[in-house]
């Protein structure tokens, strides 16, 4: 069973890397660009066959290590 | 006084802090991160460097290592803990200190001597300094931009938990002398019991007039006091 986890900075947290990427793209002529926030992406494969149980474990992984809850949010999706 | 320096793969200030501690007559031991028993210590130092190559987030992986369980136990029973640079980042990742160190506002690695002001000189780490004393200390980091929530920010101010603030040569605290974008120019903080200090500047690099200055010496002599 496979899950994807996306970790992004919370709305109020400044994202200087995203800003630099945004500025560079705008310099390349991407005029319609409104805003960019940079994040991290993980693909997690679990041995479990029970989806709810596996999801709970992945959620635990996010809270314990993958995301820092002070500044980051995460989203888990089954893929 | 017995001290222990925790060593992770990628630590690179572990020898420097050991030399500083030994110069100040601490009986120091180096402790590898896979150990599960801490030597008897009055002071535990988490040194600077790039533990685990800063993978995931600075300090995130080191913050989950085996020896950290023992460090947390020692901290809770009142042992003095000093985290410098990456050590400060690791302490925030373990939860021993609140808040987090974000990427420097200008996105650059900064390595230079800057000025900091002693905000609270009434602790085990700072009693040999004068209040508002200005120190010239080296910083060398990419993630030193301290951030915390508004409740903790108030707690830091009300309970006098800010150790050092970035300032200019005359002691003025403003945006221009804030090297990394830190909230309220914070360079170092204590936990609520004031037995844990996390700081971005490197006092262990300022213990010898031949290579720098002596502005870091009083941090160690405070601990011995």
Task: Summarize the helices and strands and which ones pair or pack.
The complex is a heterodimer of chains A (79) and B (225).
Chain A: E1 2-9, H1 16-27, E2 39-45, H2 51-66, E3 72-78
Antiparallel strand pairs in A: 1-2, 1-3
Chain B: E1 2-7, H1 14-23, E2 27-32, E3 43-46, H2 66-76, E4 80-84, H3 86-94, E5 100-102, E6 110-118, E7 134-141, E8 145-147, H4 150-158, E9 162-167, E10 186-190, E11 196-199, H5 217-224
Parallel strand pairs in B: 1-2, 1-3, 3-4, 4-11
Antiparallel strand pairs in B: 5-8, 6-7, 6-9, 9-10, 10-11
Write up what this structure looks like.
The complex is a heterodimer of chains A (79) and B (225). Chain A has 79 residues and is α+β, with helices and mostly antiparallel strands. Chain A has helices at residues 16-27, 51-66; strands at residues 2-9, 39-45, 72-78. With 225 residues, chain B is an alpha/beta fold. Chain B has one domain (2-224): Class I glutamine amidotransferase (GATase) domain (Rossmann fold), CATH 3.40.50.880. The longest helix of chain B has 11 residues, at 66-76. Chain B starts with a strand and ends with a helix. Chain A binds chain B through residues 13-14, 16-17, 20, 64-66, 68, 70-71, and chain B through 56-57, 60, 64, 93, 99-100, 102-103, 105-107, 147-149, 181.
């Amino acid at each position: 069973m496979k899950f994807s986890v996306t970790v992004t900075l919370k709305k109020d947290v400044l994202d200087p890397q995203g800003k630099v990427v945004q500025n560079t793209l705008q310099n390349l002529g991407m005029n319609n660009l409104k805003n960019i926030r940079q994040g991290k992406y993980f693909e997690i494969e679990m041995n479990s066959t029970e989806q709810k149980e596996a999801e709970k474990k992945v959620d635990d992984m996010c809270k314990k290590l993958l995301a820092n809850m002070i500044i980051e949010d995460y989203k888990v999706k089954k893929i | 006084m017995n001290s222990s320096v925790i060593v992770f793969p990628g630590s690179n200030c572990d020898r420097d802090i050991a030399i500083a501690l030994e110069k100040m007559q601490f009986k120091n031991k180096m402790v590898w991160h896979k150990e599960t028993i801490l030597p008897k210590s009055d002071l535990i130092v988490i040194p600077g460097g790039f533990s685990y190559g800063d993978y995931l987030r600075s300090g995130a992986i080191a913050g989950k290592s085996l020896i950290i369980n023992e460090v947390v136990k020692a901290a809770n029973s009142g042992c003095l803990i000093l985290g410098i640079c990456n050590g400060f980042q690791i302490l925030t990742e373990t939860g021993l200190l609140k808040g987090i160190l974000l990427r420097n506002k200008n996105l650059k690695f900064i390595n230079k001597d800057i000025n900091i002001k002693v905000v609270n000189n009434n602790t085990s780490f700072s009693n040999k300094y004068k209040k508002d004393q200005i120190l010239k200390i080296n910083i060398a980091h990419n993630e030193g931009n301290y951030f915390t929530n508004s409740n903790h920010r108030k707690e830091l101010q009300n309970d006098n938990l800010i150790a050092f603030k970035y300032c200019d040569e005359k002691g003025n605290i403003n945006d221009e002398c804030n090297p990394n974008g830190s909230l309220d120019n914070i360079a170092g903080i204590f936990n609520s019991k004031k037995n844990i200090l996390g700081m971005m500047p490197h006092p262990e690099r300022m213990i010898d007039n031949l290579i720098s200055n002596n502005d870091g010496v009083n941090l160690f002599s405070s601990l011995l006091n």
